[in-house]
Design goal:
By secondary structure, this protein is an alpha/beta fold. Helices cover 22% and strands 28% of the residues. Strands 13, 14, 16, 17, 19, 20, 22 and 24 form an eight-stranded parallel beta sheet that branches. A seven-stranded mixed beta sheet has the order 5-4-1-6-10-7-11. It has a five-stranded parallel beta sheet with strand order 12-15-18-21-23, with helices on one face. A hairpin with a 6-residue loop joins strand 8 and strand 9. The longest helix has 21 residues. The termini are far apart.
């Protein structure tokens, strides 16, 4: 019988490198193509057949809670004392059976397909703990993987600031995605220590504790390091947007949408666009928008929260919360807001 699955999204970090003018701004709600980065993580985990999703919020938690409260349950981490401490705050999990999947709220490039592959291996190999890893040319800042030679068996994870010179040369890193048997997780969370350079309670310490008691821990090496790309500053935010934009435009073009210049089309991944619609260069379509068939949009148009029928022509215009029926011509240089074009 399949085990129940739960997801915990870690979204309590400060994100000081985002350099916001608002000192209480939550990092994981910074937008990518008009959509909070944590929403991409939620989209990746939702299809996994879950019993529940929990988001741990802390710094700037009001922003994060407002963003996720209608989709996930919320647990507060009022003191930011590490990933292990964050899991302790999800008190609803204490009496649950099943597996817990832990991911970071800043992993906007994570895909459902990757998580499905990892979980399949976790179940097939009857692991108590499975951790995603990746190999990076520059592993600075990441925990290093210590594994049994010639095997996927994990022995320990050494956090970056705790590495000796030899361990610092290891290029296989902890990607920050965990799958853990929940009964064991709840048993061992109180045993985590903060005897380390940062004085934090690391979830990665579970590897050592599980091994000491004979529980099976394995690594899943990700084929594409993009899956675990972690956004910490605005340059990385822009990089993630570029990848998501490329994925979105590719999918739309395969579905019958013409995008004249995919490098300059900024389309939120939730947007629905009908066949034979043509998107001209430097066009942005975000928000709660839905575009019908055989429309011609752009160049240099911005559409937000637009509902559009078929065979319309929008030329170099800005439309916000606009409804358009069929066979209409708008522009050039029109600015419409809160209107219906029938």
């Amino acid at each position: 019988m399949p085990k129940d699955k739960y997801v915990v999204i870690l979204g309590a970090g400060r994100g000081s490198r985002m350099e916001s003018r608002n000192p209480n701004h939550s990092k994981v709600v910074f937008p990518i193509l008009g959509k909070p980065m944590i929403s991409y993580v939620i989209d990746a985990v939702k299809p996994l057949g879950l019993k529940d999703i929990y988001t741990v919020v802390g710094f700037g938690g009001k922003y994060t809670e407002e963003c996720v409260k209608n989709i996930t349950k919320v647990a507060w981490q009022h003191e930011i004392l590490g990933t292990g401490h964050a899991l302790r705050q999800v008190e609803e999990l204490k009496d649950k059976d099943g597996d817990v999947i832990v991911v970071g709220g800043e992993m906007a490039l994570l895909t459902t397909e990757t998580l499905e592959k990892v979980y399949h291996k976790h179940v097939k190999n009857e692991n108590a703990l499975t951790i995603c890893t990746s190999v990076l040319e520059n592993p600075t800042g990441y925990g290093r993987i210590l594994r049994e030679k010639g095997s996927y068996r994990l022995l320990d994870i050494r956090e970056d600031k705790d590495c000796n010179e030899e361990e610092a040369e290891i290029t296989e890193i902890n990607a920050g995605i965990y799958i853990i048997d929940n009964k064991l997780l709840q048993k061992y969370l109180p045993k985590l220590s903060n005897n380390n350079a940062k004085k934090e309670f690391y979830l990665s310490e579970l590897v050592k504790l599980f091994n000491l008691d004979g529980y099976k821990c394995e690594a899943y090496v990700l084929e594409d390091a993009q899956d675990i790309f972690s956004i910490s500053d605005r340059f990385q935010l822009a990089y993630a947007a570029k990848i998501i934009r490329k994925r979105t435009n590719y999918r739309l073009m395969l579905s019958g949408v013409s995008i004249e210049d995919p490098e300059t089309a900024y389309i939120s991944p939730d947007i629905k666009i009908g066949k034979d619609t043509v998107i001209m260069p430097n066009t942005t379509i975000i928000g709660d928008s839905e575009i019908g068939e055989a429309n011609w949009i752009g160049p240099n148009s911005v559409l937000k929260d637009v509902k559009m029928g078929n065979e319309n022509h929008v030329h170099s215009s800005v439309l916000v919360n606009v409804k358009i029926s069929n066979n209409k011509y708008i522009g050039p240089f029109a600015h419409l807001k809160d209107e219906e074009v029938c």
